[in-house]
Design brief:
The chain is of the alpha/beta class and 487 residues long. It is 48% helix and 17% strand. The chain is built from 16 helices and 11 strands. A hairpin with a 5-residue loop joins strand 5 and strand 6. Helix 12 packs antiparallel against helix 15, helix 13 packs antiparallel against helix 14 and helix 14 crosses helix 15. The termini are far apart.
């Protein structure tokens, strides 16, 4: 028999038909609401699936654009052309029936004289040399004579016989361009038997052999591009506005021709002069990424790291070289034959320059010989200051104090800039040496506290200590400077 507490937990069942009907209606309403909710969830699910599919397709497209080769994209385009070839033909046929002109391919497929279809020629730049006489330009004329034959003309043995003015160049004149005609005088000599011989004056050596540009135009292009920083495509546009079409590839070739000629003459003379007479050469290298040429077998290649090396001889001659590999042998070959001071940073690639014969034999490769020259290393105080600046940025008190000490050294040395070297040397010994000695004494005092640590502060202190001897080298001569900032 159930207890009263158990009776209270029993579910009260409907006792009448009306109560049963109401309960059934409530249940039907709950079922309908659940079905509607399920339909909404299914619709939301379908929308999410569609959105996911669109995102997946966009992701695949982005991946193709980033990682798939251009050749594959071109293949896809060809496949599309094949798939829609019939549709293109149907559209062309419909256009013909409507009296609408089809694309230019139909008009170009006319038979030629040999019976083969005559296609349209694209990217036609023309062949042969451009006729500069057809340009609406002012004309200047230079007549070139043969000195030896001119003497014979004065003696009456030879006669002038016109000109050979077939050589035409495009030259630059202030604010305009002119047509430069090079007229070589022809001479006619008649022997005792009455036979005539025509001699044309030989063409002198040219800066740009085979080019249509005169040296004045090439010099103007280089000045606009290098001196004023004007891109070649803007120079190309300016020439087009003047009625002269010169593409940027031609402008670039002119620069290369001038560079090749100057490198083998003027620059080489500067290099030889610097090796023979320079007292100190300041040098530094800057890395640059070089894109290799496209190799059809290997495909696209990653960029390679090259270096541009600058050499400033006595703050006068400025020489640039490109190094595919920045290493000791490559640097040594550029300084071969030079005896004097070399100011550079503490990079290990310069160590071979200052090695004696025994050390050179141990470190240098077998195919590199010692040139017998003695070079003296000069340190750069700015490279030392840079380490203390990095430490100061990291909230180091030692770094900030090092900057203050070094600033005083730079200010004092700059105060007598422009004085004779002997006076600079005297003032350095009298006024600057105490500050430098105090700086290195402070470095020695701070080093033990950071000996077991890693960070910019220890790097700055160790750099100054390791480079102490070469940093003090500027006291030897008043012509030496504290930094190689010029390089």
């Amino acid at each position: 028999m159930a207890t009263p507490s158990q009776d209270s937990d029993l579910v009260q069942l409907p006792t009448t038909v009306e109560e049963l009907q109401a309960l059934l209606n409530e249940e039907r309403a709950r079922v309908a609401a659940s079905a509607q909710r399920i339909a909404e969830l299914e619709k939301e699910r379908d929308n999410l699936r569609a959105s996911h599919e669109r995102l997946r397709q966009e992701l695949e497209l982005f991946k193709r654009r980033l990682f798939i080769a251009k050749a594959e994209r071109a293949h896809d385009a060809k496949q599309l052309e094949l798939e829609y070839a019939q549709k293109v033909r149907d559209l062309d046929a419909m256009a013909g029936t409507l009296g609408i002109a089809t694309d230019e391919r139909a008009s170009n497929d006319t038979p030629a004289r040999d019976g083969k279809p005559k296609g349209k020629r694209t990217n036609n730049r023309g062949t042969g040399r451009r006729d500069l006489r057809s340009l609406p330009l002012e004309e200047e004329r230079i007549e070139i004579a043969d000195p030896h034959l001119e003497k014979l003309v004065e003696e009456g043995k030879v006669q002038r016989h016109g000109f050979d003015d077939s050589s035409v160049r495009l030259a630059h004149k202030r604010a305009t361009k002119v047509r430069l005609v090079i007229a070589r005088i022809r001479y006619k000599a008649v022997d005792a038997e009455g036979n005539a011989d025509v001699i044309t004056t030989a063409m002198p050596d040219e800066m740009l052999p085979g080019a249509m540009a005169a040296p004045s135009l090439a010099a103007n292009v280089i000045m606009e591009n290098v001196g004023k920083g004007l891109p070649l495509f803007r120079i190309e546009d300016a020439c087009t506005r003047d009625g002269i079409r010169i593409d940027r590839a031609t402008l670039s070739r002119w620069k290369k021709l001038v560079g090749d000629r100057l490198h083998s003459t003027v620059v080489e003379a500067m290099r030889l002069h610097a090796r023979e007479t320079a007292f100190c050469i300041s040098t530094d290298a800057t890395g640059v990424c070089v894109q290799p040429l496209y190799d059809r077998a290997k495909g696209g290649q990653p960029c390679k790291k090259g270096h541009f090396l600058v050499m400033i001889a006595d703050r006068d001659h400025i020489l640039f070289d490109y190094l595919a590999n920045e290493n000791g042998p490559s640097i040594y070959k550029l300084f071969t034959g030079f005896s004097g001071h070399v100011q550079a940073d503490a990079k290990s690639v310069f160590n071979l320059l200052f090695a004696d014969a025994d050390e050179f034999k141990r470190k240098a490769p077998d195919d590199l010989e010692h040139d017998g020259c003695v070079r003296t290393e000069v340190g750069c105080w700015y490279h030392a200051r840079r380490r203390f600046w990095e430490a100061a940025v990291c909230k180091s008190e030692v770094g900030r104090e090092g900057l203050v000490r070094l600033s005083r050294i730079f200010e004092l040395d700059a105060s007598w800039k422009g004085e004779p070297p002997s006076e600079i040397k005297r003032r350095r010994e009298q006024f600057l040496r105490p500050h430098v000695e105090s700086f290195f004494a402070w470095v020695d005092q701070q080093r033990p506290a950071f000996k077991g640590q890693r960070g910019y502060t220890r790097t700055a202190l160790e750099y100054a200590n390791n480079q102490r001897d070469v940093l003090l080298r500027f006291f030897d001569d008043g012509r030496l400077v504290l930094t190689n900032n010029g390089a």
